[in-house]
Amino acid sequence: MILVTGGTGFIGSHACVELINAGFDVVVVDNLVNSHEKSLDRVQQITGKRPLFFNVDVCDEKALDDVFSQCSIDSVIHFAGLKAVGESVQKPLEYFSNNLDASMVLCKVMRKHNVKNLVFSSSATVYSGDNTMPLTEQSKTGNCTNPYGWTKYMGEQIFKALCVADSDLSIVLLRYFNPVGAHESGLIGEDPQGIPNNLMPYVSQVAIGRRDHLTVFGDDYDTPDGTGVRDYIHVVDLAQAHVLAVRYAQNHKGCEVFNIGTGKGSSVLDIVHAYEKACGKKIPYVIGPRRAGDLATVYADTKKANEILGFKAKYDLERMCADSWRWQSMNPKGFE
Ligand code: NAD
Ligand code: UD1
């Protein structure tokens, strides 16, 4: 059985679908701080199976221990964490405490129950801003610009140290680039609370009429059209990478890190135009100042994940926007 922490969230719910489709039994632990349990009803609608669910805070050692006692867990995918960059600057203590305690408590409970395999949600945000593109797993890390980024960086250090101390452990660190899109059914997707921080959910709320225009954060970068370039990856591709990663963890020992992206950069205006095509409407936008901490261009070298995990992203930008729009238009208010 696979334990999925944060499994009611955006990426976690998509991972549940792919894990169930691949034949795994899934148990979800989530405290619903940024998600709805309804996402698991939708997982059931898609797959025919509802993951077992525990409304538990991963930082609560006793409650997590009970889950491990009740279920025969052999591997864990650890998505649970707070993820809003701006909020992490306002509430650093909450971010360090939640994200690092969750990882450490989880590892203590895994040790007690002799569970050796873990996949962790890391982020391209751990890379230092002064690298050349594309980013390989060897590129420089650190110099994070916000507490959220540091929690991912420090999380990676903790997992690496644990693998040094216990040679039976197997930990896979996945550094996600920019996950977007939704399951093709339109039944699960990203449901941000309040004003979206990230580009694609913002654009989709403009498309549905919840916001009147997008502000493009700078058009004077050294990129083909002057707007920021990122490596957007379809969340279903990303979810499938977790199936490969968990199988890899079950068959290897030690700590390995993989970039999970497409290797292809798209600009803000590329996204706007692809979304306009997907929804059949104009996306009004204005050009604003640059956002602090943003880089001109970020994209992945995907060779390692391709060669070792056998992972290659299948879906293009057109498909990411089409699936995002299907989710948004079928669920204008998200899961509410
Ligand atoms: P999300 O907020 O939708 O999912 C995270 C889930 O964790 C939520 O359901 C939330 O309720 C839960 N959670 C948070 N703290 C918890 C705790 N202490 N105990 C139990 N549950 C808790 O976010 P997501 O986009 O699905 O991200 C999943 C993971 O991937 C996160 O760790 C995030 O930092 C990482 N990540 C996300 C992105 C992205 O752009 N979405 C990029 C890189 C990395
Ligand atoms: C952001 C985070 C990063 C995190 C990632 C998760 C910052 C500085 N970085 O990355 O730590 O891991 O999300 O996916 O917050 N844009 C606009 N208008 C908007 C929103 C975004 O023009 O309203 C632009 C940005 O300037 C950027 C691109 O769109 O060029 C993508 O932005 P976003 O979706 O926030 O992702 P990242 O900046 O890559």
Explain what this protein looks like in three dimensions.
By secondary structure, this protein is of the alpha/beta class. Helix content is 41%, strand content 17%. β5, α6 and β6 (170-176) form a beta-alpha-beta unit. α7 crosses α11 (317-330). The chain is globular. It starts with a strand and ends in a 6-residue tail after the last helix. Bound molecules: nicotinamide-adenine-dinucleotide (NAD) and uridine-diphosphate-N-acetylglucosamine.
Question: Bound small molecules, which ones?
Answer: nicotinamide-adenine-dinucleotide, uridine-diphosphate-N-acetylglucosamine
Percent range for β-strand residues: 15-25%
| N-to-C span | 30 Å
What is the H/E order? EHEHEHEHHEHEEHEEEHEEHEHH
**Could you tell me the mean pLDDT?**
97
Count of DSSP strands: 13
